[in-house]
Amino acid sequence: MSTNLVIIAAGGANFGSLVTACARLGVEARVSDAATTIRAATHAILPGVGAAAQAMRSLRASGLDRVIRTLSQPLLGICLGMQLLFERSAEGEVEGLGLLPGTVARLPAAPRWPHMGWNTLEIGRAHPLLAGLDAQPWVYFVHGYAAPTDAHTLASSRHGSAFSAAVARGNVMGTQFHPEKSAAVGRQILANFLELPCS
User: N or C, fewer C-beta in 10 Å, the chain?
Assistant: First the structure.
């Protein structure tokens, strides 16, 4: 089966670099907010920039929150998109999609806030999403909130304290960092995601 990738147009995201990154892997990504298109995809990516409360309002207004909760194909949340997968965010005290347990919290102010730039991953457990990576790969972050580490954490990073940098639970995955801005490491992660079988 050929890859049918949809980037979920949740509002407030700049899709250009992500579309380009997927094109470099030979996959044409469609950006869509249509429920039928998203459900028909073999793979779906939920990107996000901005604030959690505004993003969730947009998802609820369009009905995409209900669509995302019912997806069975591989789903990858990126940056804010990953944070929205959790039950709750302290940013705006808003309920998330509830696909992952836990609450996203504000990062410590030290050494600086927000966390922006390159940082290493500490890979905690093997998963197809992170296949082929070195033990401590460098990736690019831009965020002020993050999820704590727990049983669903694939890799962590540190900014004042440890946080989940990559997570997975069944078909639901997330990266707090931006794979589309993380050079060769990011390309490997996106390629791994696109090779995951559709259920």
Answer: N
